[in-house]
Amino acid sequence: MSVLCVSSDDHEVVRSSLCVRLETPSLARRRWRTSCFGFFCLVSCWLGNSAAQSSATRLDRSINQQTPLERRFRDRVPAYAPTPSEPIEQRTKRNRPSTAPQFDDFQISQKCAEGLVDQKTCTFHWRPALSELSEFLAIETGWNLATNYWVREATFHGPWLNDYFNAVSGFSFSRWDDDNPWYDDYVGHPMMGAVAMDIYIHNDPRGKSLELQNTKAYWHSRLRALLWSTLYSAQWKLGPISEASIGNTGGAVIYDHDKWTNGTGTVGLVVTPVGGWAWNVAEDIVDQRLIVRLEKKSQNPLFLFTIQFLNPCRGFSNLLRFKAPWYRDSRPVRSTRRIGIKQRNDELVASPTGSASIFAGPSIKP
Prior knowledge:
Strand order of the largest sheet: 1-2
Largest sheet: 2 strands, antiparallel
Oligomer: single chain
Helix content: 55-70%
Number of domains: 2
């Protein structure tokens, strides 16, 4: 068509107009094709974007439905790469299990002992203390009922309230000995008082982190625990849940061990708190001078449990608050059972080969 436009001068104008008229359909077709191609590209981009968004939504949904173990193996945390000049102690320190909650309590206790924080922060924890004391009282009462037939006979037969009042009124405050075996009065009762003191100390922010030391804060905390143990001793002898109410001790005179006795005396009221105070301080001495050294020799749970027989009352009171017998408020005591894979990870990170990357992942708290 371009050749027809320039073939003759006579018909130049006519042919030019003809050329224009002939070219118009061709340009229209090209513009239509261009518009269709552009529209097709826009539709393709829109469909592709929608597909990508739906795919991302399905991926997020599948990730959210994964178990914690699958997420742990998917999101690996790169191991810490120490520099050659950095000491091994600093390398392993970064990956040691966190004991922040315990150290927070330790710092609060220290500040309470020094009088650096407000009184509200240092308030005695009544609810857990009474809960632990109730557990201890239930264990002692259950033991008496399970092992002594006459305690069960006196408790579940006859008018209970009347027998309880008769037992309280018959308590012998004028005599010292209650005619029990010597190990009951001078070993068992001091241990009972020491457990009661430990329950108080564990729930007293002003004294829970204090080890043996000749300071006012330490001795004041132990004197407060002595008062707590005295009240518990009185409750155990004469209270609503006591030997007077469960067993009616003091309500009747019986012939036992070649003598007449009602089984009461002031020895229990005195030896339980005072002997418990001496026992508690003795356990502090043993803990500071001996157990701390033994803890460094092994982190085996069986070994840590065995050495707690040197601190039996403290270990038992820890069980009452559902903690390991070797737990201490004043220092972290870890066992291999609690460290687990984390301890192995620390050893590999400390090695110069740097082969701990395969063990990298979320840390296991103690």
